[in-house]
Amino acid sequence: MENELNRIWDPMYGLMELSPLESSFVFCPEVQRLRHIRLCNIDSLLIPGAAQVSRFEHALGTLRLANEWLAAKNKVAFGQADNLRIAALVHDTQSGPFGHSIQYILEDNKIGGDFKHEDLSGAREKMYHQDLSANASYLGAPFLVEKLCDKRWKHVSEMINGRGPLGKLVSGDIDLDNIDNVVRLAFHVGICNQEDKTLPIQLARSISLSKTGIQISVKNIPLVTRWQEIRKRLYEFLLLDWGEFSGKAMLTRAFEDAAMQKRVGIDNWRLTDEELIQMFLGQIGDSQSIKIITSRLRLGQLYTPIMIARSPSVESYKFLNLIATKREIEKQIRKAVYKDRPGPQILVHFILDVKKTDRSVKITCKETQKQEVIGFDSRCLLIGVFASKPVKSKESLILKNESIRILSENGCKDIKMVSDPLILPRAENDQLALLS
């Protein structure tokens, strides 16, 4: 049985044989918890391929890429190879339920301090990994990664933060982590071809480290541009589809309400996706709104989109994404359209697209030792406005126009509707036409 536990079949890379060291970390409780944390930030309804990919699967993939990089004759100092393997495997162990969706709420509203899921050493200091054994556990099993790391802990956590000699391999513009997660999600969603399955391994074998960061040969630059193309298409799906947007808005509202009522806080990062949902579904009394919106999300009863748009007003994000600001904007929109008449609940959600859909990559050309920047960075504010029930076309248009006016007054300039990312060729705003 012991030998059988030392091999895994990955849907992209095939057979993976684990060393005793790797196997010991794979079966740590905090790594096993990742089997129940989605790689995608929402339980996707309209892009089901993204719904069930776990961060555990991604962690194993990142480990595979670390081993591929080491096998490509990249020389490292004694002990650093195993540190890289461990960092690749445990880099997501502090990811909260639904990943970045919850992280952004905690960060933007300063709930419990600055929460950074990749900051393992800082988390220890800030009590995200709490000292109490009852808290530092998963299903009653104590966390083991730090104990197993022993003297390696400092080096592993620094590497996950992008520091140290090998840090750029784990956290940078293009690293083993995001090389795997982009292609892996795209593979499951169905927007990359069979040949693309080998792209992460090709990239891992092609990149090396220089004093200035990632280094690659000119002949292998097309591998980087292909990864950027896949990333762009994937993030268009994940950020611009109305169903994804509505689901994120609803989950965010449930968590915001729970946070404002002090039903959740920073210590709830240890929950799995399902544990968080069940906690929300169990709310009673004054917290019924949390249960209702979570039930609708679980039943696929998404809020109706009024508009999906973008604005260049990135600098307004911090103000706009405050819980109090969003509630005030929603109140203004509803009052402008319905006055004192009954009407649907309005929900506003913002997504900051900075280096998400498009990401430039700074590399050093191996032949010339000159730095080059490949591609460019996306930089815009994505805006979703939703209604809790379907509205007639005329009413929807009024809601849209009032939303644009009020959002403009609150700092969103030059608002433009976005196209349906799932349909080619794309017609402006045609995804909302699907609902009429």
Poorly predicted sequence stretches spanning 5 or more consecutive residues: 124-134
Name of the CATH first level of the largest domain: Mainly Alpha
CATH topology grouping of the largest domain: Hypothetical protein af1432
How is the biggest beta sheet arranged? 4 strands, mixed
Quaternary state reads single chain
Indicate the structural class: alpha+beta
Order of helices and strands: EEHHHHHHEEHHHHEEHHHHEHHEEEEHEH
Spatial shape: globular
**Rg, Cα atoms, Å:** 22 Å
Q: Could you give me the name of the CATH homologous superfamily of the largest domain? A: Hypothetical protein af1432
Q: How far apart are the first and last residues' alpha carbons, in Å?
A: 57 Å
Q: How many helix segments?
A: 18
Residue share in helices? 40-55%
User: How many domains is the backbone divided into?
Assistant: 2
Number of strands: 12
> CATH architecture of the largest domain, please?
Orthogonal Bundle
- Strand arrangement, major sheet: 5-6-9-10
- As a percent range, the share of strand residues is 5-15%
Mean pLDDT: 90
